[in-house]
């Protein structure tokens, strides 16, 4: 009963304090768990550690959260700044601050002088989409500056490549390699994923996405695997040289600090270095292996005291959940047939445990769970065991690494081949994980743990798993969605119509003059977060970038029944890309006309425009317009139609109007409003220089007594359908 390591209640208390500083009631639950642990183990003296940890955690998080942002006075201004670019942040000296750059420079790390418009970080305005503001906060610590803003429209004015040890190391990683091989080596060895993020196997098939679908994304994030392989290789070399235990384990400890300074710092690599250092130090002093749970808790305690908001960082969560699960590798491996090789049993056990331990975070954050992670990781693990130490040696050799990189190039290509091959496999789509899902997961985890301990029999554990799976599946089936979701895609358009047996996406946004893929990074994550696993219809209203550019990525990442278009233009590159993606995925394309209709679940979706007998030279005039009717309730979605065409629609009375052309003064005319009398109007709009929504439109809506709902003010808008 007295085997509870002291760092465990201390870190549970710190977690509770951080959550309370963030205004989350779960902090009280964490403190109660900490108190329960010390009482369960009959060590009430440790109760003081829980309380002290709570106070220190709250104070640390509060200090980071309330720190003034030095960039605030310049938000919205065009600025030119200079600093050290590490591939992720530009670190400024005056004022002391860090900013991100969009688009990311094609140049590598080094000194940059860059101009652009400085903007405040944006919070999550759409379900499932990256929360930039929260991520910025999580990167700040007691001794490091919190990133304060984003420089958009970034243009590099001057660039000086990175020098010193990092510059030398980077040249060693890339010399003699292709761009893709070099980008992969920088991700594996330095944690710099800037270059690999731009790499594609083919049009629409990003390398990073393939790694994620294959369950291999962690290979491009520095973690305990890198530390274990590198220290293991060094220990093996020192053992062969006959070094005493003090040197065999002590020398790697001394090198872990410089290694952490060399690579790009993150929660996972910091955790790995702290844990590795503690274990190696104990072995060097002849004290044997320390308690793994105590070491994990000690590492978490050190991380959270300096970087309290790492608690909200996905990398931190994945790293610690995975390593906690791995503590049971020997136990699970013992359940596998003894005639199997030990390395295979341990590899299978470790992979299964890591996937099970991180399941709720993976599913809830990325909206999908890889189904081929087990074989992919077993095969990739062998390559990584060679590539990590050989790549590190190449980095140390710098430009002299050319002969060694012949081998590294072959290994990198093999890893890329595995990622591309396994990345073709289907994935399990997942929606947001709520409190009910977390409780079901906890119950299933407890059942599995008790089964491993021999406290419950296998049928009982299996029954609990099936019951939890059923309980998480039932709500969506008992109460299927009936709603219209107006996605916040910035200055663009994307609307989801959800009925129990019909799911329609009208447009998928786009980003004019930018390399940001709205479809892949906003629309698809939102659909997955909402639990949308397939689309029956994808409507591309007209050939405008801000409406349909993202549709190609949607087609490549989600099953689609058919694509609806109006005018089939043959000279528009954006529409051509959408049609090409449809052809690649064998999705039929239908040219719809006024009167075309689909019905489902007591509702009908009718095409109001185009008539199809003649086409305008203006794309907006040819927009596909739709009307949704359900149990007497009516809504219309008008694309970018101008006022003269709106008047010809005969849309009839409406309860909800989706304003045409983002609130342009030339749309949503008085005649349309008089004809339709909508009680509510939604305007899909973002930061723009066009003056959308125009004051004239807002005035017309007010005069028509129609309430205006704007995505630039409210984010994604969800509207129930009767």
UniProtKB/TrEMBL annotation:
How this chain sits in the membrane, per its record, is: Multi-pass membrane protein
| Alphabetized UniProt keyword annotations | Cell membrane, Membrane, Transmembrane, Transmembrane helix
Residue ranges spanning the membrane: these are 6-33, 45-65, 216-238, 245-262, 268-286, 293-310, 343-366, 378-397, 404-423, 429-453
> Which residues are in the Metallo-beta-lactamase domain?
491-687
Its main localization is membrane
Name listed for the protein in its UniProt record: Competence protein ComEC/Rec2
Q: What organism does this protein naturally occur in?
A: Deinococcus grandis
Which intervals of the chain form a coiled coil? none
PANTHER family in UniProt: DNA INTERNALIZATION/COMPETENCE PROTEIN COMEC/REC2, RECOMBINATION PROTEIN 2
Q: Return one Gene Ontology term, BP aspect.
A: establishment of competence for transformation
Stored InterPro entries = ComA-like_MBL, ComEC_N, Competence_ComEC/Rec2, Competence_DNA_uptake, Metallo-B-lactamas, RibonucZ/Hydroxyglut_hydro
Its GO CC terms?
plasma membrane
Which compartments does it reside in? Cell membrane
Q: Which domain of life is it from?
A: Bacteria
CDD domains listed in its UniProt record: ComA-like_MBL-fold
Write the lineage as a comma-separated list: Bacteria, Thermotogati, Deinococcota, Deinococci, Deinococcales
Gene3D superfamilies, from UniProt? Answer: Ribonuclease Z/Hydroxyacylglutathione hydrolase-like
């Amino acid at each position: 009963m007295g085997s509870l390591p002291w760092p465990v209640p201390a870190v549970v208390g710190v977690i509770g304090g951080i959550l309370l500083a963030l205004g989350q009631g779960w902090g009280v639950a964490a403190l109660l768990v900490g108190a329960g642990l010390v009482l369960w183990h009959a060590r009430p003296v440790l109760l003081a550690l829980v309380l002290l940890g709570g106070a220190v955690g709250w104070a640390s998080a509060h200090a980071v959260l309330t720190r003034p942002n030095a960039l605030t006075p310049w938000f919205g201004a065009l600025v030119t700044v200079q600093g050290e670019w590490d591939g992720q942040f530009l670190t400024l000296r005056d004022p002391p601050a860090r900013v991100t750059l969009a688009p990311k420079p094609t140049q590598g790390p080094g000194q940059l002088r860059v101009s652009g418009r400085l903007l405040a970080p944006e919070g999550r305005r759409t379900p499932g989409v990256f929360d930039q503001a929260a991520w910025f906060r999580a990167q700040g610590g007691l001794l490091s500056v919190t990133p304060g803003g984003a420089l958009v429209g970034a243009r590099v004015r001057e660039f000086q490549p990175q020098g010193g040890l990092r510059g030398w190391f980077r040249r060693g990683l890339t010399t003699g390699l292709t761009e893709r091989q070099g980008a992969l080596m920088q991700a594996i060895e330095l944690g710099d994923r800037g270059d690999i993020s731009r790499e594609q196997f083919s049009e629409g098939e990003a390398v990073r996405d393939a790694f994620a679908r294959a369950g291999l994304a962690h290979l491009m994030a520095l973690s305990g695997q890198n530390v274990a392989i590198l220290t293991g290789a060094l220990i093996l070399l020192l053992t062969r040289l006959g070094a005493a235990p003090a040197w065999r384990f002590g020398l790697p400890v001394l090198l872990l600090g410089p290694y952490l300074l060399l690579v790009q710092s993150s929660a996972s690599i910091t955790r790995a270095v702290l844990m590795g250092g503690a274990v190696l130090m104990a072995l060097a002093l002849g004290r044997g292996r320390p308690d793994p749970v105590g070491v994990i808790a000690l590492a978490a305690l050190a991380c959270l005291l300096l970087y309290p908001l790492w608690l909200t960082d996905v990398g931190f969560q994945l790293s610690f959940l995975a390593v906690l699960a791995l503590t049971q590798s020997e136990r699970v491996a013992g359940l596998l047939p003894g005639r199997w090789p030990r390395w295979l049993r341990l590899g299978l056990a470790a992979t299964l445990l890591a996937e099970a331990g991180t399941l709720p975070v993976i599913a809830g954050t990325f909206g999908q769970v890889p189904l081929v992670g087990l074989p992919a990781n077993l095969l990739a693990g062998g390559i990584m065991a060679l590539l990590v130490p050989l790549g590190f040696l190449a980095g140390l050799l710098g430009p002299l690494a050319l002969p060694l990189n012949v081998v590294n190039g072959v290994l990198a290509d093999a890893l890329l081949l595995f990622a591309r091959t396994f990345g073709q496999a289907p994935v399990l789509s997942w929606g947001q994980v709520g409190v009910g899902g977390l409780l079901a997961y906890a119950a299933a985890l407890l059942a599995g743990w008790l089964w491993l301990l021999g406290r419950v029999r296998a049928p009982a554990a299996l029954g609990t798993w099936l019951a939890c799976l059923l309980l998480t599946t039932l709500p969506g089936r008992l109460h299927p969605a009936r709603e219209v979701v107006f996605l916040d895609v910035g200055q663009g358009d994307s609307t989801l119509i959800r009925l129990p047996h019909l799911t329609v996406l009208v447009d998928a946004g786009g980003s004019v003059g930018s390399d940001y893929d709205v479809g892949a990074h906003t629309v698809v994550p939102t659909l997955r977060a909402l639990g949308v696993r397939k689309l029956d219809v994808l409507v591309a209203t007209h050939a405008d970038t801000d409406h349909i550019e993202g549709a190609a990525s949607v087609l490549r990442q989600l099953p689609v029944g058919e694509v609806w278009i109006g005018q089939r233009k043959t000279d528009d590159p954006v529409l051509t890309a959408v049609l090409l993606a449809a052809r690649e995925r064998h999705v039929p394309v239908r040219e719809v006309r006024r009167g075309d209709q689909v019905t489902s679940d007591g509702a009908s979706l009718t095409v109001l425009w185009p008539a199809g007998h003649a086409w305008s030279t203006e794309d907006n005039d040819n927009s596909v317009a739709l009307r949704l009717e359900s149990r007497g309730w009516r809504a219309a979605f008008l694309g970018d139609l101008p006022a003269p065409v709106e008047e010809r629609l005969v849309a009839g009375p409406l309860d909800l109007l989706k304003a045409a052309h983002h609130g342009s003064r030339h749309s949503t005319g008085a005649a349309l409003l008089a004809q339709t009398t909508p009680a509510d109007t939604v305007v899909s709009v973002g930061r723009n220089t066009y003056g959308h929504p125009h004051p004239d439109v807002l005035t017309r809506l007010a005069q028509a007594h129609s309430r205006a709902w704007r995505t630039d003010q409210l984010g994604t808008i969800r509207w129930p359908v009767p």
